[in-house]
Amino acid sequence: MKITIQHRERLIEGLKRFYSRYPNEKWNIFHFIKLIRYRIKQDRDAVIGVSGTTGSGKSRYTIMASILMGWRFDLIENVSYIPKGTEISDRLSKMRKRCYIVDEAIRATRKTDWQSKAQKGVIEKIFTERWANNVLFLLMPNFDEFAKSIREGAMPFRIVIPYRNKEYARVFVYKKSDNWRSDDPWSDKEANDRYEKLRRRGRLDPEDIDKIERKLDSYLLDFIIPDLGLILPSVIDKYEELKKKSREQLDEVDEVSPKENKYKNQYEQLMAKVAKILKYNLLNLGQVNVTQKEICEELGVSSPVFRKYLTMELDEPKKSSTRVEPLSDNNNKLKEAISSLRNN
To answer: Which CATH code of 3.40.50.720, 3.40.50.300, 3.40.1440.10, 1.20.1050.80 fits the domain covering 5-176+218-253?
Structure first.
């Protein structure tokens, strides 16, 4: 489905009506579009990581932003719903001055898949195609799941949609620190410390989230957006249809063979052993036991995944039930059998 000039005009009109109801909001999505256009004028691409819980509005926001950019945009050509193989790098090779949305980037840019050919291709394109003037939206539920080379290397902007209510979703925009030596370019440690202090007091309200995020060094701006489905229902209906179709095709192709199950189980068992060895220092490596966070970073897994391996039961190695007889005993039995046959 191609987005037309009429779609864009209808969206702009609907957004203006929406923002007129919230005069106290300092910024809106048009400020974000202006920011990205300025970067494109500098002959630079914009790689943007978009994170938020399921249903927060990541997909609808990125479609909205792509339409507002005013470039040619198609829900088939410019969106990878569930990318397979080298789909992302192949499409990026053909794009110039386009918006490209990777709806479920977890299938191609996850940090635990850093060794895959698909991810290597994506990273190569992001680092080498510097003057294609594209805007690449990579959608991931948890920002920490992005490969480090993307998260701290090629991705200058980050968007988080922390909450959504019946009227709007809140969008935060961040810019990575220019200090290339920084071990916390997105101010995550600072944010985590502040959230921990507030959690001890009780439940977090949207106002608490706003205060914390706006004080971070990487913070640029934040604004609210309406549900795109209320302004352009036909676009969202088509998007949902294409995503559903993509999932059905994936289910048909991604059937796991018994052999693949076998190797997956071996990998899981290996990770379980590694997790236990490192966590409990079973090999007495050094004098100081490393922290769980350090282990996770070294293994390239998140804390929940590490805990899964840590609590996993290990399969006991199966002992061979086949008893091998000594050669001399076998010869004696053979002689006895021949003798018995002769006597009969």
So the answer is: 3.40.50.300
